[in-house]
Fold this sequence. Notes:
The chain has helices at residues 3-17, 41-48, 52-60, 64-67, 81-84, 89-97, 99-108, 118-121; strands spanning 21-25, 32-36, 74-79, 110-112, 126-128, 134-140, 149-152, 155-164, 167-172. It has 182 residues and is α+β, with helices and mostly antiparallel strands. It has one domain (21-172): FAS1 domain (Roll), CATH 2.30.180. The chain has a seven-stranded mixed β-sheet with strand order 4-3-9-8-7-6-5. It has a two-stranded antiparallel sheet with strand order 1-2.
Amino acid sequence: MSRKIQIVLSALAVLSICPTMSFAKDETTGGKMSTASTQDIINTLRSKGSFHKMLDGLDTAYNLDNTLKGKGPFTVFAADDKAWSKLNQADQDTLFANKKKLAQVLSYEVIKGEKLNSQALGTMASVKSMEGHEIRLSTKDDSDKKKAGLYADKARIKTADIQCSNGIIHIVDAPIMPPLAE
Length: 182
């Protein structure tokens, strides 16, 4: 057997035993993100390591984390810790001290019953959140690549289409907020 054929067969053997993974660019680190398609949304966020604030909120807000471990499908606009830091600390403390408002904000970041990739979102003007209000969707063409792209309300989707067993995650550069009740 020729050396080239042996190399090709070896490569095919390695590929056949590797688990199926989805890859997306992680703009917070500049590297690749990988998510096993068998992980649910919560475990995918946990495996990324930079979603502590959101995960703490989902746990605090009437166990929304258990909802996102469920069957789905869900589309989640996930704000990482860097995105949450765009809100001043006093506003974060007030929000996290009020479970009802926190649940309202975090359920606004979820679309229940649909797994919408970035291509589908790009064709829509808005989508109804699990919280009940509409999330405005838009695209911006800009010479500054940090401003161009797909937006959910005023937050830019910086990493899209992270596949999970029960849905899809889009990482946004700021938490998206519904109109909050008094």
